[in-house]
Design goal:
The protein has 160 residues and is an alpha+beta fold. 16% of the residues lie in helices and 45% in strands. The chain is built from three helices and twelve strands.
Length: 160
């Protein structure tokens, strides 16, 4: 039985996720986008995955560059998430942002709760997305409250 797109999206709205920015680099081209489909895969060796829309610019840069960096956003970084999700000024997302070059060559934004700098070890086509599995070569951890996404809205952790 086929699931209707709206039903599928409605069900997914009940899933709560963190919010990341995934950056990549191919030569002089530096790019990135907001990503919630991020997961840890393996502890030994340390592996993570991100899912990128085949139509996204970021997918093309990761495919060519073979590296990506995952930035776990903090509760106060909604504006950054919106900037990296918006198609307006998509080539100017890094303007005015502080970043440095990571161990893999991927761009590292300096202000994130945590950063995982990864080298692509495999890519798997999955419908309209590509799953990139990355070997984690370097991590940074600043800590702080994470930004969450639920039912189409940003939210934060409420201690019970
Ligand atoms: C909260 C949130 C989560 C998102 N998660 C993903 C994701 O996991 N994968 C993806 O391909 N796009 C995701 N997007 C959409 C991209 O950020 C958006 O399409 C972006 O403009 C793509 O940029 P690019 O084409 O310049 O790479 C998400 C957007 C938001 C707001």
């Amino acid at each position: 039985m086929t699931v209707a797109a709206e039903q599928f999206k409605d069900a997914l709205r009940e899933w709560v996720s963190g919010v990341t920015i995934v950056t990549s680099r191919h030569g002089e081209r530096v790019h990135g986008m907001t990503v919630s489909s991020f997961a840890s895969v393996s502890l030994e060796p340390p592996l993570v995955l991100v899912c990128a829309d085949k139509d996204s610019n970021t997918h093309g840069v990761i495919a060519e560059g073979g590296v990506f960096a995952v930035h776990v956003l903090g509760r106060d970084q909604e504006a950054l998430s919106n900037l990296f999700a918006s198609k307006a000024d998509e080539e100017r997302r890094f303007d005015g942002l502080a970043w440095e070059v990571g161990a893999t060559g991927a761009p590292i934004l300096v202000d994130a709760v945590a950063v995982l700098d990864c080298r692509v070890i495999s890519a798997h086509g999955a419908g309209d997305h590509v799953i990139y599995v990355g070997a984690v070569e370097q991590v940074q951890r600043r800590g702080g409250e994470p930004l969450l996404y639920h039912r189409g809205h940003y939210t934060g952790v409420v201690e019970g």
